[in-house]
Give the backbone structure.
Amino acid sequence: MPMKGRYPIRRTLEYLQKGDIVFKNTVKIMTVNYNTHGELSDGARKFVFFNIPQIQYKNPWVQVMMFKNLTPSPFLKFYLDDGDQVLVDVEGKDHKDISQHVKKILGKSEEVLQAEELARMVHSNPANFGPKKYCLRECMCEVEGQVPCPGRIPLPNEMRGKYKAQMKGTEWSSNPENIMASSYPPPFEEQEEVREGFLCPLCLKDLQSFYQLQSHYECEHSGEDRDVKGQLKNLVQKAKKAKDKLLKRDGEDRAESGSHECHECLYNGGVNPYMWEPQELGATRSHLDYFKKHRAARIDHYVIEVNKLIIRLEKLTSFERTNTDAAKIREIFFFFQAIEKSVVSWVNDQDVPFCPDCGNKFNIRNRRHHCRLCGSIMCKKCMENITLPSAYKLTSATKEGMSFLGSPSLSPSSSVQGSRRGSISSMSSVSSVLDEKDDERIRCCRHCMCMLHKREQHMDEKDYAPEIVKFYEKLRMCMEKVDQKAPDYIKMAESLNAGESTYNLSHANGLRLEVQKYYELIDALSKKILMLGMNEEPKPHPKTQQLQRMIRYTATLFVQEKLLGLMSLPTKEKYEEMKEKRKQDQERKLQLEKQALQEAQNKRTEEKPRDRLHVVASTNGEAAQMQKSSMTKVGGWLPSSGAPRNWENSDPLLQQIDNIQSFIQQAREASRVDEVNMLEENLRQLQDEYDQQQTLLAMELSKRAAEEEAVQEEQLQILHEREWEREQQKKTSLQHSRTHYSHSREVKSVQEGVYGKPTLGVGTSDSTQNKISPLSKTQSLRVFQHWPNQENMSPLPQCEREPQLGASAEQHKKPTSSLNPFEDASTPLEDDPSNPFHEEMSKSNGKKDNNPFEEEDEDSKNEVTSVGASNPFEDYGNPFSEPSQNAAKPFTEATSTNPFDMDEDAVDENIIEEELLLQQIDNIRAYIFDAKLSGRIDEVELLSENLRELQRTLQEQKQKRR
Amino acid sequence: MNVTQAVKQYVSKMIESSGPGMKVLVIDKETTSIVSMVYTQSEILQKEVYLFERIDSQSRENMKHLKAICFLRPTKDNVEYLIQELRRPKYSVYFIYFSNVISKSEVKALAEADEQEVVAEVQEFYGDFIAVNPHLFSLNLVGCARGRAWDPALLSRTTHGLTSVLLALKKCPMIRYQHSSDMAKRLAESVKQIITKEYELFDFRKTEVPPLLLIVDRSDDAVTPLLNQWTYQAMVHELLGLNNNRIDLSGVPGVSKELREVVLSAESDDFYANNLYLNFGEIGTNIKNLMEDFQKKKPKGQQKLESIADMKAFVDNYPQFKKMSGTVSKHVTVVGELSRLVSERSLMEVSELEQELACQSDHSSAQQNVRRLLQNPKLSELDAARLVMLYALRYEKHSSNNLPALMEELHRKGVSESYRRMVQAVVEYGGKRVRGTDLINPNDAVAITKQFFKGLKGVENVYTQHQPLLQETLDQLIKGRLKDSQYPYLAPSTLRDRPQDIVVFVIGGATYEEAQSVYSLNRSTPGVRIVLGGTTIHNTKSFLDEVMAATTPGRGAERSQGSGRPASRR
């Protein structure tokens, strides 16, 4: 619509909205073929002018394309999502008719449109807001967590513009960064000072951190808190009232419509209680602070008491009694009694006429005894004794801490202050003797004994870690490892089972083994825990046993759940199959692309003879087919051994190949397969580019092809053959696994190809080749002979043309020189292609289905040689094959030592099978254990049957292997 | 609003905050069932909790390598036990969680006992109720009424339980209660009291529509717990007795040893979760499907595992198979037992008559049918008594009420004295004099027309026609039409909006039938979430116990029924 007149946009929009064609969902593309002039196309033109804009506006997801003047008669074509096409002939039709027709056949019906419209407006749609009669919610603010509408609940002051403006005037900018700040009306308007940071909203005290502020608030203002909260509550209440007033009418309204609503609700559907949204943790309240406060007071007291006792004990025990001789004993006794008394003042004898514990009267027979630790008095019966060893033990902890404070001093009142946990800061090492009767002991009262006993126990337990803890820690560590590794493994296994080549099978197998090792470890550890102390005579406490049983049970559960969740890996064979399938799919795609490209190229090289093109086309199709199926390594490599290669210009390619091989090896060792996909992609792009360049060159060269010189031809031919062949090697290494190797044909082609060795490697034997008699040595034919071959090689068809076309002396140089740039272009990228190559190679190496083929190849080789011996073309064959054998050595050695590969593979397979068997046996054992635990005897039998079976198989395997 | 989830979160929070290492869960009698309802053993084992110890058990051993998580109700006894424990700690660290509000003085007492500094945490986690289903909780209290008044101890327990539900769900509700019930009012008041007292605990984010707590009394609807049930959960409870999700199958003839006691938990059993509210017929089909599924998966004993692939497949499928076999055998046993009981006690007939009694109003045919069925020799004492009870409740005030004749019939049938006494007791408990709303006879025009239409439409399932009174009440509540006179608000303010989050509490116990109707209300009403709770979850037997406890003042007192009822109904 032209943008003229009044309201151009509004008018246009109105017009566009009037369109009534809304396509069904299946319509994806619409094309209109029409002519810009002519009677018959008039309706179509008008349709394009008037209706197409409307259609595009109403169907933004349909692609609309117009083709002008391509066909004599106008038509519409629709492409549907299922691949169908709808063709509408519009020749001579009016544009209204056309639109009516289109609407009828492909438009949505009125009913559908209406239904869709309704669905969009449906009540339960939570995105709709409106009167409660129609919508779930009236306003966004009803959603939890949204800011309420200011009309219902006034915003806090600091969120209101007016207030802010006012504040600007008064220059109040103190903003207490506090949780309460947002809801608490700022009371400090008059304050001049600007303060920031974690300010308390009540006393403006600056606190350093949020946590400090919080604790400060809780401690200091918990009383005042009420006022604040009260204010808040008031505010909320007022707001509520106001809101209620506002909503009053609504409420009545709703009551009337209640029943109607509810009836509808039944169909709108509520929520299954099991599906209720996740909720936050319910309310909690911590008493820890309060608890700690009270505990601290208590603990301080307790610790001081204990420390006091220990210090005294220390003093009493630090005396060395070895040098006391009998004569001095009495003297010493009094001396030490004095010391003992100085440690703690003894209670006066007269003050205690009765034993405080048992209440017996003290007399001559029932003598008073003093506690050496606290000085109290008790009778002999109530007295306790601390043996020296235990006394040493109790004090040893403290001694270590104070060994550096050596000097003995007699002052008993030296500081007792220490850390709460008993490391005493300074202490004198006073010598002391004990009672002359039992000098191995220290007398003390029950109370002191009790405290010391507790302390002793505590010390014992501090360092005590029973065996079970050690095992348990190991167990947990294993479990954690499994938790880490198992998901990785499962990911790998899934990927491998899907035939993807992201992960390496052997790597996955390794991981599996590792995980399984952990399972075994877990099993063993838990068994050990279970059996802990079971063999000792006093059986462990039933609770300990229960604990051990539970740990074992948990471990079993864990193993069962996780181990049995471990999916098994595909066997190598199967994996190869799957990989093959997957690769074929990819190849097919790739091939299709290539073909398209090829066609495009063919178009561009139209100046070339038509029949040639034809050949190209036909062989292309075939090649595509061929490449779907597999071609073996040997087939791919055979020609390399039959071609001469000692020329100087082969170096870059040779190098490249060598490089590739080394890369293969490296990559294989490093088992880096992750990048393979990416690299493949790179390689393909590279090849495509290479192809194109080659094609251009080939086109150039083809113009000069007519001036070939016969003399140099032979030599050149060989050179080209080699060049081509090298390329082919590169390619075959890519291809050999996909190109089908037809055995019988191969023999034939070998026979044929004795002369033109390069053909051998292609392994194709289509009619074009048959046409070419090996005897026809004329150059033209020979050139021709290569053509079809090259075409067969289709991924790189053009590149081979070039050497053959450039078959003159000058050209001989030219191609090489012109080749170089490509080489240069490709060398920097060598690293990239190398990996894909490696991948392909390794794939084919690791493939078992190679074996039969390889043997066949071997046969065919023999055949070839035997045939070759009796062959009239032997003369031709020999000169080529002899030098080639030397030259080919690096290749064969590096990559295609087939017989060895085969053996290895076979062995490998056996190993894998055994591994699998072992795995299965392990699994079954776990089941049996489990079944036994839960007492299902029938299952146990069944399982053990299986187990025997497996074991037998394993034995057989082993024997076979020997 | 998911009570199961609430408790589960509490428990996992407790376990998580204690860090790694071997743990022991120290619990008391009630928290045992609270925890066991939401966690299965294997689940909790995975969280490194290996032992469960009762705080009052004497046989606990010193295990300093364990961490103790104590989840206890804050009762005097428990605190005392805990003090003893802390004086001589058996474990290395203690994480103490109380399931309800604990007084400061008790915390102080604990602190002073903790001389060895073994306590690392003291918290209140309000999981003081038994979460049966996401929308159903219970307190497992039977006999909360003494006459028409609360047993004081049980009142405080109920209040605590109910407030802990509110705290766990983070709801600070408005309270409505049933006007006709004094107990409902008392409970409402004491809940309100707690909310006021612990106002800082109840200081949750305000929602636009405040949540609602509705307190009703069982005596208003004595019919529902007397009916036979046909949905899975309700039926299991009615016929086998569901106690903390456990059923005792030891009475089932020929049951294997491992199935003596089975756990039916919707949390861990998919089949059960899916069939909780389906009726018996549907369960039959489902269980058949389950069996067929199982048969397919079942490895055949005679089938030779010839290749490695076979073996591998077998091994791969085995765990699945094993899990399934557990479920299958459990449910097959349960359903088998149910159907055995149904046929043995001819429950189909009984239930049909029950439904007729409950939902229709044809006195003469009802009486005839009851008489006829009482002749049935297969009828158990309980069922016979139950029919007469229903009759008595239904036609209590009917002009031609013929209860004495039916009682005589019962006597002749040889129904024991205790059952016959119960008939009287039920009438007393839930009779017309007690009921605030009329349970059976609709008295307003809307209800009458509704019933009329219902009659016109006919019934889809003769065994499930009955709708509990609670459904009607909730329906009206959701529509905002529940009369203030019948269910007054406790506070002066009233709710103007339609309620969204509702907690219903039934004094005297809820039933699974009510749970089911709450479930379907939840499912069918958008934006409304209802949680049902009761002092317990009743089946007929436990309900009759409740009735007996309520109508006999002083436990075990042998008084005649007539004077047994307290005169005062405040």
User: Anything to note?
Assistant: Chain A touches chain B through 91 residues (CB under 8 Å).
